[in-house]
Write a structure and sequence with these properties.
This protein has about 575 residues and is of the alpha+beta class. It has three domains: about 210 residues, PH-domain like; about 130 residues, PH-domain like (Roll); about 140 residues, PH-domain like (Roll). The chain contains twelve helices and 25 strands. The strands form seven sheets. A six-stranded antiparallel beta sheet has the order 13-12-11-10-15-14, with helices on one face. Strands 19-18-17-16-23-22 form a six-stranded antiparallel beta sheet. A hairpin with a 4-residue loop joins β24 and β25. The C terminus is likely disordered.
Length: about 575
């Protein structure tokens, strides 16, 4: 068995002849009072020096008067006592070892050599055994023994750090031991809802405890002895309040800014993407999380990359600690390398308070794709006369609406019909819809002319006749524009005459702002004279509704009168 660093040993020499190594009992209870009997034997049942003195020597010691001084100038400062679980917290002895597993079902191999890592925790003398995981090995690897105290022999002793050394064999739960059970005895039970703690009578492996092997006479002698009780002492030190780590480090997070590069294999213009991330280290439980800021319209799956968890550091089962992080280093997690560039103020102050000097902050490289988007390559195209994109962004959903009359009286059975003309400012198109009055007797087909650009003047045709009926942009000199539509004037669109007699409020505001020279005044009198069939303007139609009869109607099936309000 090999270890990393310096191992610990109790030195060479012949094995001790002692059979028991526990300390003598120095505490007992009598009628509810705690008594501290003076021990008569030491470790290994050896008699103490005080028990070997003669009675005459004890009498001489009791007669001598000690020199008592009340205070002195050379008193030293009492050091603060640090308990073992605080002084030895997170201090682990690590040994590399192996064990052989016999193979009985293969004629080609006799055994397997499987390496393991043995961790000894100085805080509570516990041990754990971990086997490194090898991919595609077909073996059940990982944690072999959880953190616990491992038995050393049948007398209930456990392994200590002095028992471990390089080259020795560590026998754990196997070998020539005749034990069949290794669990601890039950020391907790409930009776009528009350928790009771019975004293165990056997140890690990069902071996009887030493206290059960004592004779009744020895137990009586221990109960008769009177302990020496002292009330207080002058060297008592102030005990500091212990604060656990999950309380002292609650909600304290170290934040680092980093980035990683993602290679691009399907684009000839870019090689990689630079994607920034934020790494959070939680001091409470040594967990980490990685978050990528969300950029709108980036087309990438961003947000939380790794949830809060302990990240593996290497194949030996170690995890990243806060001491392993620094600016300028590469943090490799699950095959992705994150380069740390900077940190926040709290992280810098915390690391400096722990004696770690951080490196200088580094800038994050510019993403080639973002740089290419901010500085587009020049395009060698012909300059346009008008910016269509600006026109779309500023004039979308803006429509000029005119109320007009379609004068179709020149044709046979022709008449004058009300229509609405809509001019779309975003692309200079015109649409004409008929206005149907209720019970007019016409089919519901309101679109008189679909939305299109109307040519105002055309170039003379070079060849006549032409086989193409549609008019192309090359054959048109000028299209209709908003200045060609004026209320009170007639306009001819596709060989049809229309009288514009009114418009809506938005159209009036548009003409007052952009064409103040054009007067947009409605023609009510002209509208009334144009309707030969009795239909007038909107005002006359509304007035005719007020002259309707309000007499009640009779329902002949139910003989109930239904009155209508006036």
């Amino acid at each position: 068995m090999a270890c990393e660093g310096s191992g610990m040993s109790d030195g060479g020499g012949s094995p001790p002849s002692k059979s028991t190594f526990h300390r003598p009992q120095t505490l007992k209870y009598n009628k509810g009072y705690a008594l501290a009997p003076r021990p008569t034997v030491g470790i290994g049942q050896d008699p103490l020096l005080s028990e070997q003195l003669l009675q005459q020597e004890i009498s001489n010691l009791s007669i001598e008067t000690p020199d008592i001084t009340y205070g002195s100038s050379d008193q030293s400062t009492v050091k603060v006592f640090i308990p073992a679980h605080v002084a030895l917290d997170k201090k682990v002895l690590r040994y590399n070892a192996y064990f052989q597993e016999n193979i009985h079902y293969s004629p080609e191999e006799e055994c397997w050599v499987r390496p393991v890592v043995i961790n000894y925790y100085l805080e509570d003398d516990c041990m754990s055994i971990f086997e490194p995981i090898v991919e595609n090995s077909g073996l059940s690897q990982g944690k072999r023994l959880k953190r616990q105290r491992l038995p050393k022999n049948e007398r209930g002793e456990h392994y200590q750090w002095k028992d471990l050394n390089i080259g020795m064999d560590l026998e754990v739960y196997g070998g020539n031991s005749n034990k069949s059970t290794f669990h601890r005895p039950q020391t907790l039970k409930y009776n009528k809802g009350y928790a009771l703690a019975p004293r165990p009578t056997v140890g690990i492996g069902q071996d009887p405890l030493l206290s059960e092997q004592l004779l009744q006479q020895e137990i009586s002698n221990l109960s008769i002895e009177t302990p020496d009780i002292t009330y207080g002492s002058s060297d008592q030190s102030t005990v500091k309040v212990f604060i656990p780590a999950h309380v002292a480090l609650d909600k304290k997070v170290l934040r680092y800014n980093a980035y990683f590069q993602e290679n691009i294999h399907y684009s000839p213009e870019e090689e990689c993407w630079v994607r920034p991330v934020v790494i959070n280290y939680y001091l409470e439980d040594d967990c980490m999380s990685i978050f990528e800021p969300i950029v709108e319209n980036s087309g990438l799956s961003q947000g939380k990359r790794l949830k809060r968890q302990r990240l593996p550091k290497n194949e030996r089962g170690e995890h990243y600690q806060w001491k392993d992080l620094n600016i300028g280093m590469d943090l490799e997690v699950y095959g992705v390398k994150y380069h740390i560039t900077q940190c926040d103020t709290f992280t810098k102050d915390f690391m400096e308070s722990e004696g770690i000097v951080l490196n200088e902050p580094e800038p994050i490289p510019v993403d080639p794709y973002s740089k290419r988007g901010k500085n587009p390559q020049p395009a060698f195209t012909k300059a346009s006369g008008f910016d269509n994109l600006h026109k779309f962004l500023t004039m979308d959903c803006m429509v000029l609406r005119f109320f007009a009359l379609w004068e179709d009286t020149d044709n046979l059975f022709g008449e004058t019909r009300p229509v609405t003309i809509q001019y779309y400012l975003v692309d200079d198109t015109v649409e004409i819809n008929e206005v149907y009055v209720r019970n007019c007797g016409r089919l519901p087909f309101p679109v008189l002319m679909r939305r299109l650009k109307l040519p105002k003047t055309r170039k003379p045709p070079e060849l006549f006749p032409s086989c193409v009926l549609e008019v192309s942009a090359a054959e048109v000199d000028e299209y209709y524009s908003p200045k060609d539509f004026q209320v009170g004037e007639r306009i001819e669109l596709l060989s049809r005459r229309f009288l514009l007699y009114d418009c809506d409020g938005f159209t009036k505001e548009y003409y007052q702002k952009n064409h103040p020279d054009l007067e947009m005044k409605p023609l009510e009198q002209a509208c009334q004279t144009q309707f030969g069939s009795g239909a007038g303007s909107r005002l006359s139609v509304l007035s005719s509704k007020k002259r309707l009869s309000t007499a009640p109607l009779l329902n002949h099936r139910t003989s109930v009168w239904y009155g209508r309000p006036a």
